[in-house]
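Structure first, sequence second, as always.
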């Protein structure tokens, strides 16, 4: 029986799309093939998403390459993936298919003006003088016009140091995510967009935060504070643990953090999947962990906590309770 679009969430469709493009890239490793198999078996929703998109993609397989735009003369895996996405969008054009692809993280990441790979960091200066530091696996587009300076953050995390504009009229500077918007009021701040929420941390000045679907007035977030929000609502404001984002130094900083949350953060800096056994999810992690070698971080956890690390492949890691 075919699964409907209502059954499969947008997040799972995006994950399935990433796997499909990887499988079509022509450079699939045995580890990636096993990781896909594990992902499909991890949850019924994963398998539904995969079958749904695979059936859609069969239409692309039956179309001549020149019609679908699949002229794989561009060099490099990233360019091949970009071409495959364009072809898939063309053949599956219209309705839900277009929304699934054009509005998905894979599509936006492949076509974004600025992007970093997993584990990569990058600094740049925008046309107005604003400085941006990009964290791992980040993608965004910049839209400047006569009235507004806007960054569309598709995924990942950026540190923004806004430039002062002496010209009048003043142009607001905003960062837009799928969950809402952050408006800078002469400031230095970070915005992180995850799958479930957006997080804003303010290091200088003030930022106004507005969840996309909230009817309430914007929340003013001063320096030294952080806030998480979904499209519908914002969590309570909390103090920042430090006055400087640790990831700028290539460090993951944890202070009394649940192991499950720590592994979710660590997973942003390595390819593949890190699974956490619910039996150890509430173990507590504190410290500063260099991100240059995430396997060493996992090994350190194994020494400090009652856990053991199991590698099905380099891309599929499970953290579970240590056997007694």
């Amino acid at each position: 029986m075919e699964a409907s679009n209502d059954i499969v969430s947008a997040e799972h469709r995006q994950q399935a799309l990433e796997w499909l493009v990887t499988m079509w890239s022509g450079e699939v490793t045995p580890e990636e093939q096993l990781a896909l198999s594990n992902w499909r078996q991890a949850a019924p929703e994963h398998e539904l998403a995969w079958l749904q998109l695979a059936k859609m993609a069969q239409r692309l397989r039956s179309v001549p390459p020149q019609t679908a735009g699949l002229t794989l003369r561009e060099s490099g895996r990233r360019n091949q993936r970009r071409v495959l996405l364009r072809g898939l969008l063309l053949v599956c054009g219209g309705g839900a298919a277009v929304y699934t692809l054009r509005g998905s993280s894979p599509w936006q990441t492949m076509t974004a003006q600025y992007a970093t790979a997993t584990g990569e960091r990058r600094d740049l200066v925008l046309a107005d003088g604003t400085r941006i530091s990009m964290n791992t696996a980040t993608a965004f587009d910049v839209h400047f016009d006569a009235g507004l300076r806007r960054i569309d953050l598709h995924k990942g995390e950026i540190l923004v140091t806004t430039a002062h504009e002496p010209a009048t009229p003043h142009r607001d500077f905003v960062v837009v995510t799928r969950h809402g918007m952050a408006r800078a009021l002469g400031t230095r701040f970070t915005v992180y967009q995850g799958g479930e929420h957006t997080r804003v941390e303010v290091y200088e000045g003030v930022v106004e935060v507005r969840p996309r679907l909230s009817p309430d007035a914007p929340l003013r977030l001063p320096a030294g504070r952080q806030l998480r929000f979904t499209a519908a609502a914002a969590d309570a404001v909390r103090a920042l643990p430090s006055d400087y984002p640790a990831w700028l130094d290539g460090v993951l900083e944890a202070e009394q953090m649940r192991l499950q949350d720590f592994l979710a953060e660590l997973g942003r800096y390595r390819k593949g999947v890190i699974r956490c056994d619910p039996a150890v999810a509430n173990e507590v992690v504190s410290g500063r962990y260099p991100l240059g070698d995430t396997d060493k971080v996992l090994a350190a956890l194994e020494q400090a906590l009652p856990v053991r690390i199991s590698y099905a492949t380099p891309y599929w890691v499970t953290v579970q309770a240590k056997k007694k």
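Margin note: Residues 1-6, 61-78, 90-104 have pLDDT under 50 and may be disordered.
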